Amino acid sequence: MSPLKPGQALALFVVGAVGGLIGDAAHVQTGTTTYLSDAFPFIWESAIWFPLAVGLATVLTGDLRLRLGPVEPWQGERLREAATAIASVLAIYAVSALVSDRPEMAGTTLVVMLAVICVARFASGPPALICALAAAVLGPIAEIVLVEVGAARYGIDADGLFGVAVWLPALYFAFGAVVSRLTELLVAEPAADSATA
Amino acid sequence: MSPLKPGQALALFVVGAVGGLIGDAAHVQTGTTTYLSDAFPFIWESAIWFPLAVGLATVLTGDLRLRLGPVEPWQGERLREAATAIASVLAIYAVSALVSDRPEMAGTTLVVMLAVICVARFASGPPALICALAAAVLGPIAEIVLVEVGAARYGIDADGLFGVAVWLPALYFAFGAVVSRLTELLVAEPAADSATA
Amino acid sequence: MSPLKPGQALALFVVGAVGGLIGDAAHVQTGTTTYLSDAFPFIWESAIWFPLAVGLATVLTGDLRLRLGPVEPWQGERLREAATAIASVLAIYAVSALVSDRPEMAGTTLVVMLAVICVARFASGPPALICALAAAVLGPIAEIVLVEVGAARYGIDADGLFGVAVWLPALYFAFGAVVSRLTELLVAEPAADSATA
Q1: Taking CB atoms and an 8 Å cutoff, what residues of chain C touch B29?
Q2: In the prediction, which pLDDT does A68 show?
Q3: Residue A197: per-residue pLDDT
Q4: Residues C25-44, mean pLDDT to the nearest whole number
């Protein structure tokens, strides 16, 4: 059984699915990615399975985070932290779309460095870092399979890693750290620091 | 009478006017915006009323911040915080100029997410958030009027919101939070934390 | 004799040389800079003297930091701070490459503002600020000499400052603050805050 309660899993699913739709629209409109099949209906710019897959990946990452270690009590404003975390990974998503027609090295360096800053900011410790690394490995593998089966392709200046973009692991690395932080914000007890006086 | 002292109002006016000149130069040189009239003299790339209007908006936003709630004592280096706040909104201003010829979705996502991060970083509480929201509504309305009367226009890839850019409310949202923080830095008492020993 | 121990100097040299190679590859591939001579062998996209010079500049900046003032004990995770600092300056390096074909004002504004945020985040005090200012002056002078002697040139949209880019002092400004912070992380005693209980 998942350590996530149903309401927590639903919240992560919705955030992931909506965030995936927003980021994917930027990728499709810039030609970073192109869907090659219309076998499934589209929502906005995305085939319907894409936001569902990102929502599911978000839930699975949150589940993994809770299995890997306990969550410290949270001190501070949760909504502010959640907004910062979600906006950070979507900003990197948008940057990856905007650099997709430029020389791959410069864009990749930017996306990778932003992802490092994002993970250093939001990963609370080894369990969150493991989630980020797992996402950085498994996410691109899933997308390489999608390219292989002809469901989608990356643009000609953004396909240097077995058909997907070289910066894709970095984007998923940031995703894993952000989802870990969101999961922690959902389940953490309030900090008792003001009660110690 | 304004809760701002004359010297404080002047400081806000100068910061706003100079920042407006810098950001507007980036907008004009990238074709994000174009002035359609030379009825007024120009300073650098801007019609003279533009920096005056931004300076005035900065003072009015600071005035609103002080009317909406008290300012907590400030602990830390004010110049460092002020430099970070000003640089943050001008960085977003420059990003909006640089994305103005790219697909509107990707650029808009980036500017919106950067604005969310900026507001989450600098808005101290509900009064500052109200200032940010007020700027996000009133700033674009003022610019829509300027476009309607033929004073200026936005580029063809950056005019999706009644003739102004879709990301314009986000830029003003960040502006409102930054001006609130600058106002707080101008009027806050020093924190007494080191005096408690 | 340098206040840096040999192992500390070597660490700074390696970080600087590798970072210089990564950033320079982005500059070369975007046409921001072009080497005009093949008198020296190349590593990746760089003439071999470039990473050596950046590594040496990193050591000299760290040496200057220690001569200018004592280093406070460090509280917190050093690896997280070091990763954030290194990624920040390399992100700015990559941004400078990506804006090099756009109107110089907008790109320069973005690079300058990011550098201000970076210095405000990483400069611990006056000694670090002096290191950042020294780098901002001496780095571009060295590159202007390299352009003058015909070793390299900047692109036609990025040569507005005596043949080098107008944003180059800002990039070195961020570099100086980041190297100061890395040096502090290498030499600082652990903070005794948890031992006071």
Answers
A1: 103-106
A2: 98
A3: 38
A4: 94
Give the nearest partner residue to A116 out of C27, C83, C94, using CB atoms: C83
Q: Which residues of B touch C102 (CB under 8 A)?
A: 30, 98
Do B143 and B164 meet the contact criterion of CB atoms below 8 Å apart?
yes
| Tally of CB atoms within 10 A around C36 | 14
Q: Between the CA atoms of A105, A110, A111 and A112, what dihedral angle is there, to the nearest 10 degrees? A: 80
In the numeric block, which tokens belong to residue C37?
Answer: 């001579």
CB contact under 8 A, A110 and C98: yes
Strand partners for B149:
none
Beta carbons of C97 and A117 less than 8 Å apart? no
Which of B18, B29, B46, B110 should we substitute to test contact with C (largest number of C Cβ atoms within 10 Å)? B29
Residues 6+ apart with CB under 8 A from B155: B30, B31, B32, B33, B34, B100, B101
Q: Distance between terminal CA atoms of chain A?
A: 39
Residues ≥6 apart with Cβ < 8 Å to A194: none
pTM above 0.80, yes or no: yes
Q: For chain C, what are the domain ranges?
A: 6-190
Closest chain A residue to B99 measured between Cα atoms?
A98
Q: Which of helix, strand or coil describes residue C65?
A: helix
pLDDT for the residue numbered B191: 87
Check B120 against A84: CB less than 8 A apart.
yes
Q: Which burial class, exposed, middle or buried, applies to A41 when counting CB atoms under 10 A from its CB (0-12, 13-18, 19+)? A: exposed
B196 pLDDT more than 60: no
Lookup result for tokens 């314009």: B168
What pLDDT digit, counting tens, does each position of C139-189 carry?
A: 999 999 999 999 999 998 889 999 999 999 999 999 999 999 999 999 999
Best of A34, A98, A181 to substitute, by most chain B Cβ atoms within 10 angstroms, is A98
C-alpha distances (whole Å) from B70 to each of A52, A153, C8 are 45, 55, 48
Mutation site for A-interface testing, chosen from B109, B112, B121 by largest number of A Cβ within 10 Å: B109
Phi, psi (5° rounding) for residue A99?
A: -90, 0
What separation, in Å, do the N-terminal and C-terminal C-alpha atoms of chain C show?
39
In B160-173, which positions are buried (b, 16+ CB within 10 angstroms) versus exposed (e)?
bbebbbbbbbbbbb
CA dist., res. C8 & res. A178, Å (int) = 33
CA distance B134 to C120: 28
In tens, the pLDDT along B56-69 reads: 999 999 999 999 99
Q: Hey, what are B14's tokens?
A: 């100068």
Which subunits count as partners of chain B given 3+ CB pairs below 8 Å?
A, C
CB C92 within 8 A of CB C132: no
Integer Cα distance of A139 and A131 in angstroms: 11
